[in-house]
Design a protein that fits this description.
The structure holds two protein chains of two kinds. Chain A has 19 helices and 32 strands. By secondary structure, chain A is α+β, with helices and mostly antiparallel strands. In chain A, helix 6 crosses helix 7. The relative contact order of chain A is 0.14. Among the domains of chain B are: about 55 residues, Uridine Diphospho-n-acetylenolpyruvylglucosamine Reductase, domain 2 (2-Layer Sandwich), CATH 3.30.43.10; about 100 residues, CO dehydrogenase flavoprotein, C-terminal domain (Enolase-like, domain 1, 2-Layer Sandwich). The chains are: A alpha+beta, B alpha+beta.
């Protein structure tokens, strides 16, 4: 089939990329609202649920190979130090120790951060790699670790982001002049004339809002198990991107890409921190390759929380200007963010300010601060969660200043078109989401006396209702490929190179294939999480897996079905148009009669397997594809103890066609719970004098427990977004987390009758606020 | 964690014999291990030998005495305290105090004796920092990240005692029965738990070669009722920000004839608010009096940079605990 190369626009984690991709063949027409679907859209339990709950599913840390060595890492206890010397002689004599790697014996083995060596001369944060011990058992490796003597030259450090960007700040990295990404920063976006608009505004508000540094804390930590057989290096990697791991490992080891085989069959969570092999994976691969023994290196929880990424703090300062009637005339935003020691990008905190509301005069200044702390990583809607929280809190404050209902203010400033470049949205149902959510939460009665004061005005409980909006891309794009194989007995195998990072990808892809092949779901097996199938898939992130890979699977299934029907047409001597396939049986459209199973036809041929390829087509030109939605929260605050309880969340999201209502609601609930954690309790603590993280563990870094989780009501419009892709579906991974913290913050402010200025809304903060503090 | 030997003891006598035979003090008793193992994993302790006393059945009982007192074997688990029906009826403050302690999994393992001896959760103590409590010069929490630490200064250390059970036991005037090389002795829980000193950088006065065998709770005054309240920053699996144990008895005219008020999460060891007790005794409890008592309980508090919120929080819990106990 002839190929073509096209340039297409891809939005990933809030950033826009143009990329050139190869396409082949034509996609089937979109499943529109009238499409008659039998498997897609039905609540479908996970096809791999049994393996997951019985423990049969093999996660990376479960891989045990004969002769496997265990790696453990000695990490810098100091926030900034030069590693002068390392004496590992005593450690090497510990029984079972096979190798100790460090900067003096690994040359310039490059890691996955900014081209730096894994074992750099300068440790830039507490937790930076210093020496790696490989031994027969974990206990032996840990015993050896304690015997390594390292001479450190302590260097000045800075961990507070505001201090880091001050003129006289210590250098985070002595190789760099300024504590920022590059000389291009800070960066400013501006349209219109913000200062003039603010000066002319009837009403202005200034709001500073701070969000904490949050730690991903996926159940499965980063790491890998690697094995070198003299020809091929196989790595089981905890990754959201097997092809990215292949490239990184091949480059690090000087191997050809055909010598690296990456496997990720089951994932214990990534949340954006696992786009690649991570230094831990590179080290597992390097050790296996150089020593010739299989190696497992998985981070422990402390390492995970020091050295495997975070959602950076943000300090957002808004100035909003409006006319008396509520028309927004100016948005000015400065965002300070802590990118950590090696961050190379700035999260999209400013995106909501630029896009969510109709406004001619907008300025957003991004100020990245480099500090001697672990480097940031993408974390489920990076920046946009924080930006929505800040902007929506500021909008509520503007509504108070205008003495206007805050939902009415949002409706008044609704943006019908995309404003960064003037283009229409493919679909925008935000106003409908406002209406639906407001009705379900009881917005109209939110100020009723009995509702506000459940124990009366003298009681210690206050209830409040708040809301926030959601915008996200979630459209994915090419390149993404799939192969559909129809075997002689009428069963099918779908091959893709994507990953199921816990969202249910295996299940939804099986549904899509079963739909087009006309097979029952259990006749379709989906394989993913391997580079060896020869079908490229993009990283699983940015809510784009379904929207990228799903259409490729659909096209492959459509092509396979075409060949199947053609074969049956020959064998049954029936015209192609007269044939249909449903639930594994060939049906004569005219008579409605079953003509036999798919297998009964294919088995008449000698050894024929149908193999068909599918590819995700280009994204539509001239329109912007977005998920939109709104969440409403009702909270109860104990003004005596500062305790905040979320009573109820109503989540209304438009993610186009819902392929599987069960996995969709799992994504919604998971995102809302993670957002509730950020709103109420999650927070990395750092001692500024020591430059040290105080709570890098599950005991002290608090994530929500089942008792913290409220009633969650999920509403979706379930209309295909026909400009998005041939499924009409958008991703649902990130949308639910985006408005959760902002909605809770506004609900708490409503309950208390005064604004809140930060997250998390912990009892100490609430009590300080009620006792006159900020 | 470093390698260690593991020995199982069949009796307290055997456990003490092994413990005392080890002159270097390198042996440690282990029961539930829910605190000890975290200390070992954090490299705060590296005992050469663990002597397992968990299997000693004779340490595991809840026994009601004829005089209305109560004895609890030191090996009784928090889960057993939490589900004992008679205890819930006669000493409800005890099951209340363990209800929100740790997690169900931990409560099944954790023992009463070990719960009293657990070490602070202060980040500097638990982390790789040579703080005063670990023999260093400085308490880093005083000027550092002290949100969860104490508001009453009892020593150079700012850390708070993490136990939920201990404030309730002190409110009940409980004592521990101890066996050691010189035989048995009895010590009030309030003497077992004492602020660390320059020479004894731990919160317990138990000697290394001693063992707690039981907790004794004396008969309480007639009409006495107790309430334990705990504030957390998560609805499960969190140490107390502040907790309050109130135990009081009233006569026929609602006048308080007995009051004990103990706070957790505010000092090195559970903090008995004696000024507040003195203010309350001999009067009927009113909301106004409860507020005055709460104020008195906070007299002398010296909150640190990040824990000022504990003062209003403690005041609130004191009032609620007193009013709830009076209502029973």
């Amino acid at each position: 089939m002839p190929i073509r190369i096209v340039t297409t626009r891809l939005e990933f984690e809030g950033q826009v990329y143009e990329q050139r991709v190869v396409l082949e063949g034509d996609e089937p027409p979109v499943w529109d609202a009238a499409a008659d679907l039998h498997v897609v859209g039905k609540p479908t339990p996970r096809v791999d649920g049994r393996e997951r709950v019985t423990g049969a599913a093999q996660y990376t840390a479960d891989v045990h190979l004969p002769g496997m060595l265990i790696g453990v890492m000695l990490r810098s206890p100091h926030p900034h130090a030069r590693i002068v010397s390392i004496d590992a002689s005593e450690a090497e004599r510990v029984p079972g120790v096979r190798a100790i790697l460090h900067r003096f014996n690994t040359g310039d083995l490059k890691g996955t951060s900014a081209g730096r060596p894994i074992f750099a001369e300068e440790a830039l944060y507490q937790g930076a790699e210093v020496a790696f011990v490989l031994a027969e058992t974990r206990e032996q490796a840990e015993d050896a670790l304690r015997l390594i003597r390292v001479e450190y030259e302590l260097l000045p450090f800075v961990v507070d982001p505001e201090a880091a960007v001050a003129p006289d700040a210590p250098r985070v990295n002595t190789e760099q002049e300024r504590n920022t990404i590059s000389d291009e920063w800070p960066k400013t976006y501006e349209r219109g004339d913000v200062e003039k608009a603010l000066a002319e505004a009837d009403v202005t508000v200034e709001v500073t809002f701070e969000t904490p540094t949050a730690l991903h804390n996926a159940m499965e930590t980063h790491g890998g198990v690697a094995s070198w057989d003299g020809r091929t290096l196989t790595i089981w990697s905890s990754t959201q991107d097997v092809f990215g791991v292949r490239t990184q490992v091949a480059n690090a080891l000087g191997l050809q890409q055909n010598q690296v085989h990456v496997i990720k069959h089951y994932m214990g969570g990534g949340f954006g921190a696992k786009f690649g092999a991570h230094n831990s994976g590179i080290l597992a691969a390097y050790s296996a390759y150089t020593i010739g023994r299989p190696v497992r290196y998985m981070l422990d929880r402390t390492e995970e929380n020091l050295a495997a990424g975070n959602r950076p703090m943000s300090r957002q300062t808004y100035r909003l200007g409006a006319r008396r009637d509520g028309t927004l005339t100016a948005i000015d935003l400065r965002t300070l963010g802590n990118i950590g020691a090696l961050g190379g990008w700035f999260s999209s905190v400013g995106l909501p300010a630029k896009e969510l509301y109709q406004c001619e005069n907008v300025r957003s200044v991004d100020v990245p601060a480099r500090t001697n702390l672990g480097t940031q990583a993408s974390f489920r809607a990076p920046g946009v969660v924080e930006g929505i929280a800040g902007l929506e809190v500021a909008m509520d404050e503007l509504a108070r200043a205008l003495k206007m209902d805050s939902l009415e203010l949002r409706r008044k400033n609704h943006a019908p078109r995309y404003q960064l470049i003037d283009q229409p949205y493919a679909v925008k149902t935000l106003l409908e989401a406002y209406t639906e959510g407001a009705e379900r939460i009881g917005w109209a009665t939110r100020d009723d006396e009995q509702r506000r004061y459940p124990l009366g005005r003298d009681g210690h409980l206050r209830r409040g209702v708040g809301m926030a909006s959601q915008l996200w891309g979630g459209d994915g794009g090419p390149p993404a490929q799939a192969i559909a194989k129809l075997l002689p007995d009428g069963s099918a195998v779908i091959l893709t190179g994507t990953q199921d990072i816990g969202t249910g990808t295996r299940t939804v892809l099986a549904q899509i294939a079963a739909e087009e092949l006309g097979l029952p779901l259990d006749a379709v097996r989906v394989e993913l999480g391997e580079t060896e199938f020869g079908v490229f898939s993009p990283p699983s992130g940015g809510s784009m897996t379904l929207a990228s890979v799903g259409p490729a699977v659909r096209m492959a299934a459509v092509e396979a079905r075409k060949e199947m029907i053609e074969i049956v047409s020959h064998l049954a001597e029936a015209p192609i148009d007269a044939l249909d396939v449903r639930d594994g049986a060939i049906i004569n459209r005219e008579t409605g009669k079953e003509m036999g199973s798919v297998g009964s036809f294919l088995q008449q041929l000698e050894g024929h397997e149908i193999t068909a390829r599918g590819m995700r087509g280009p994204n539509a030109d001239g329109v912007i594809v977005r998920t939109f939605g709104a969440q409403f929260a009702e909270v109860e605050v104990d003004i005596g103890t500062g305790d905040v309880r979320v009573v109820r969340i109503v989540a209304v999201h438009d993610c186009g066609r819902i392929v599987n209502p069960l996995t969709f609601s799992s994504q919604m609930e998971g995102g809302i719970i993670q957002g509730l954690g950020l709103a109420l309790m999650e927070q990395r603590f750092v001692d500024e004098r020591l430059g040290a993280v105080m709570n890098p563990n599950f005991g002290d870094y608090k994530v929500p427990t089942i008792r913290d989780i409220p009633e969650i009501e999920i509403i979706t419009f379930n209309h295909p977004n026909e400009r998005a892709n041939t499924l009409g579906s958008l991703g649902a991974g990130e949308p639910p987390i985006i408005p959760t913290p902002g909605a809770i913050a506004n609900a708490v402010a409503h309950a208390l009758g005064r604004p809140v200025r930060r997250l998390p809304l912990t009892p100490d903060y609430i009590l300080n606020l009620l006792n006159g503090g900020e | 964690m470093q390698a260690f030997d593991h020995t199982t003891a069949d009796s307290t006598t055997q456990a003490l014999t092994i413990l005392q035979a080890d002159a270097s003090g390198a042996s440690k008793l282990i029961a539930g291990g829910t605190d000890l193992l975290t200390l070992m994993k954090g490299d705060l302790l590296a005992p050469a030998r663990l002597i397992d006393i968990k299997p000693i059945r004779s340490l595991r009982y809840i026994r009601f005495a004829d005089d209305d007192g109560l004895t609890i074997g030191a090996g009784t688990t928090l889960a057993e305290i939490g589900r004992d029906a008679t205890l819930a009826e006669r000493f409800p403050i005890l099951p209340q105090s363990v209800r929100d302690a740790a997690t169900p999994q931990l409560r099944v393992m954790a023992t009463v004796g070990g719960n009293l001896l657990q070490r602070p959760r202060c980040w500097y103590f638990r982390g790789p920092y040579t703080c005063w409590l670990k023999g260093g010069e400085e308490c880093f929490a005083r000027e550092g990240e002290n949100k969860y630490q104490g508001i009453f200064e009892q020593s150079l250390c700012a850390a708070v005692h993490p136990s939920d059970l201990a404030p309730a036991l002190i409110a009940l005037n409980a004592s521990v029965e101890i066996e050691g090389p010189n035989g048995a002795r009895t010590l009030p829980v309030s003497d077992l738990l004492q602020p660390p000193t320059a020479d004894r950088r731990t919160e317990s006065t138990l000697a290394d070669d001693e063992l707690i065998t039981a907790i004794h709770i004396p008969a309480q005054p007639a009409n006495a009722h107790g309430v334990y309240l705990k504030a957390m920053d998560r609805r499960a699996w969190a140490f107390a920000l502040v907790s309050a144990a109130a135990h009081l008895a009233t006569d026929d005219n609602s006048v308080m004839t007995h009051v004990r008020l103990v706070l957790g999460g505010v000092a090195n060891v559970p903090y008995r608010a004696t000024d507040a007790e003195a203010l309350l005794i001999g009067k009927p409890l009113t909301p106004e009096l409860a507020a005055q008592a709460a104020e008195a309980a906070m007299a002398g508090a010296t909150p640190l940079t990040h824990n000022g919120y504990k003062v209003p929080l403690a005041r609130e819990l004191v009032q609620r605990a007193l009013l709830a106990a009076a209502k029973r």
